[in-house]
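@channel sequence for tomorrow's demo:
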Amino acid sequence: MKAIALETYGGPDVLHPVDLPDPHPGPGQVRVQVHAAAVAPVDTMLRTGLLAEMNAGLHPPFVPGMEVAGVVDEVIDDIDPALAVEAGQKIVGFVDNLGAHGGYSDYVVLPAASVTRIPEEASAPEAASFINSMTALNALEALHLPFVATLLVTGAAGGYLAQLAHHAGLRVITIAGPGDDDLVRSFGADQIVHRGPDAAREVVALVPGGVDAVADAALLGDDIVGAIRDGGQLATFRHYHGDPGRGIQVHGLNVRQRATDHPAITHLRDLVNEGVLTMRVGTVLPAAEAPEAHRLPDAGGVRDRIILEFPVHEPSDERTTHEPLAVPRH
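structure tokens (generated this afternoon):
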């Protein structure tokens, strides 16, 4: 099979097509013929080497991709019937990528618990676009805020945190760019503060004493902790090295721990069907144009999901063949 991979860390142009052995499922696994893979911030982190420790001891190529949609084309007969996974089913899947095992591939083997049926009448790009809402769900469940608590969401143009928080009955304040007001209001934001050095003070002006919690998707860190009340909470999506003090509880989140949380994955699909979550597809590119797909978020201003379509069609006949790496089993 073909995949999009990197041999060395660096800019978007390190991504290129490679040939890898066809994977096959083991007990409790299914093989997915990938039709679409979302380009996520974690993919650019892998590409640039920010996640190099994760692949320590493994040999390249390294294949990005944690969010895929496609068709189950191979199943081992010991799958738990409660998962309702069968050959020919159109699915969306969460990929706990490692080494050469990643979603930017023509085929990927996944635990059956990591996949669920796509939303009703969704295309493959649409289906691949929403699974990163697991990151938002993970944050809200970690914060475990009571009804009508106040949550500040940074980087709110991404949408899923605001949508899920609004659905949970929270008061949602967002920090976003001046041009994103209508967008974040459509996600359910009650109030908006524009990005800038005074954002934390502006939040406290809206909520005297500070908000109950911050979900820091924009990675503002110490620049936003002043907006949190004493004894409040901070949810971070990368390692936070600071100490907010004042009894503030910090949640360092790792969404990979939810890779086989089938009830949560299916719940998010159901929320799409109910109209709570939106499938937001932006640019759709052929898989071989992955470098361009990575240049777009690097340039900033991306609001909707960038999608790669599979299979990989190389622009030339040049091929690179590698020895197989073990497929992680869960």
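heads up for whoever presents: Residues 317-330 have pLDDT under 50 and may be disordered.
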